[in-house]
C-alpha cells in the first residue's frame, strides 16, 4: 500500500487519535503564530454599522448579511501581516506560521457536509530536498481547544508550495480562532 491510500490511512488514524485527546486546554501551544482568524461570508452587506477602510489582498475580512447564512461558513487567515482598521480584528504578529522548514502561506477553515471542521492550507517546503510531512492545525477560542485538523503531503519538491486538504472530526464552531501550527513529523 502506498501513495494516496497510505496518506489517507495515516490521516484518518491520526485524526481519530487527535479527536480522542481533544478537550479543554489551559494555555496555547508553543507554535502559536497568528492572531485570531476572522470569519467571512458572502452576501449583501447589511445596513448595520458602517465599516472603514478597504481590506487588502490576503487580509481576513468580515462581512454581514441580511440573508440567512449558507451552510458552509468559511474562516481564513493568511501568514502575511495585515493592516488593521477601526472595525477589523487586530493584525497577527509579523511571524509566519512555520515549523521545521515548512511555511504556511494561507489556511482556510469551513464546515463539511456533516457539520465538522475541514480546511485547506497552502504550505511551502523551504528545504533544499524533496520532503513529506504530517501537519496539525489546532484551533482555540480563548484558552479552549475547539478543533484539531490534520493533513499530509508526500514528496514535495524543494521550494514548491502545495495545497493540503485538512480533515477534522470536531463540530464546526465559528471563529475567530487562535491557531497553533505544528509539523508532527517530516522526512
Descriptive notes:
The protein is mainly β and 187 residues long. The chain has one domain (4-40, 70-186). It has one helix and nine strands; from the N terminus they run αβββββββββ. Strands 1, 2, 3, 4, 5, 6, 7, 8 and 9 form a nine-stranded antiparallel beta sheet that branches. A hairpin with a 2-residue loop joins β3 (97-99) and β4. The longest helix is centred in the first third of the chain and has 17 residues, at 4-20. It is globular and about 40 Å long. Mean pLDDT is 67; it is low at 13-94.
Q: Can I get a quick summary?
A:
The chain is mostly beta strands.
Q: C-alpha Rg, in Å?
A: 17 Å
The number of helical segments is 1
**Annotation, overall tally of beta strands:** 9
User: Gap between N and C termini, in Å?
Assistant: 18 Å
Biggest sheet overview: 9 strands, antiparallel
Elements, N to C (H/E): HEEEEEEEEE
The proportion of strand residues reads 35-45%
Overall number of structural domains: 1
> Any idea what the shape is?
globular
Low-confidence stretches: 13-94
Query: How much is the average pLDDT?
Result: 67
Structural class: mainly beta
Helix content: under 10%
